[in-house]
Amino acid sequence: MKQRAARSTVIRKYWMAASGLVMIGYLVLHMYGNLKMFAGKVTGTDVYAFDEYAEHLRTIGEPMLPYAGLLWVVRIVLLAAILVHMWAAFTLWARDRKATGGAKRYANQRAIQRSYASYTMRWGGVLILLFVIYHILNFTVVVIDTAPGATSPFVRVYNSFKNPAVLISYAVAMIAVGLHVRHGFWSAFATLGANTSPKTRAFWNTVAVLLALILVVGFLSGPVAIALDWIKL
């Protein structure tokens, strides 16, 4: 029974690591697209490079795929990764809580540090999930419209980030994403068996820190540049 439970826990950790890496891959691609904010208009046209990129995402694979077909495949894969990640995180937390009886005392400093990391990852994940829902309602389906009258994706993004409340909430969410990625990326490779020595642990830890910094700076650079008028319509 104990061996079966241990295998189940390991499998959940593998699913959590794999789904987390899928989401990180998506974040890198999404950040690349957001950097198109700095590209201005396509030479010789009135079309913003950001809008051209957004449209290109919808036409990839045509005519073999329908309009936005590949984009929907990516969205479905991403949604599956999010659901698997949430399921693994919750079931691992519930199992650990049951095993410890919900105890809040820890035997040593290392255990306290592990508990702190788990706590921040758990509640940081909840914050990120709430932000993702808001982000989709704001910029994808536009149920929450922070840029009334916007005529294109770039104009919607531009006008939205002129609102200090939108900018601040976005910044808080991106910092949460950075912290989550910093710990999660390292943990994923530990789960997958890459952290086999102090040297490799140090390497993956450094990669995790750099990746988190790149994502936070990459995602925040455009909105901050808009707020400071470094990017103009």
Please outline the helices and strands.
Layout (H helix, E strand, L loop, with lengths): L1 H33 L14 H11 L9 H32 L8 H32 L12 H9 L2 H28 L6 H30 L6
Helix pairs in contact: 1-3, 1-6, 1-7, 4-6, 6-7
Structure overview:
It is a single chain. The protein is mostly helical. It has a single domain (2-227), classed as Fumarate reductase/succinate dehydrogenase, transmembrane subunit (3 helical TM bundles of succinate and fumarate reductases, Up-down Bundle). Helices cover 75% and strands 0% of the residues. It contains 7 helices and no strands. The protein has helices at 2-34, 49-59, 69-100, 109-140, 153-161, 164-191, 198-227. The longest helix has 33 residues, at 2-34. The chain is globular, with a radius of gyration of 20 Å. The relative contact order is 0.12. The model has no long low-confidence stretch (mean pLDDT 90).
How would you briefly describe this protein structure?
The protein is mostly helical.
Please tally the helical runs, counting DSSP H or I stretches of 4 or more residues: 7
Largest sheet: none
What fraction of the residues are assigned to beta strands by DSSP? under 5%
Query: Which fold name fills CATH's third level, the topology?
Result: 3 helical TM bundles of succinate and fumarate reductases
What is the rounded distance between the termini? 63 Å
Series of H and E elements = HHHHHHH
Write down the overall geometry: globular
**Name given to the CATH homologous superfamily:** Fumarate reductase/succinate dehydrogenase, transmembrane subunit
Helix content: over 70%
Contiguous low-pLDDT stretches (5 residues minimum) are: none
Average pLDDT confidence is 90
The CATH architecture term is Up-down Bundle
Class per helix and strand makeup: mainly alpha
Please compute the radius of gyration using only Cα atoms: 20 Å
Total domains: 1
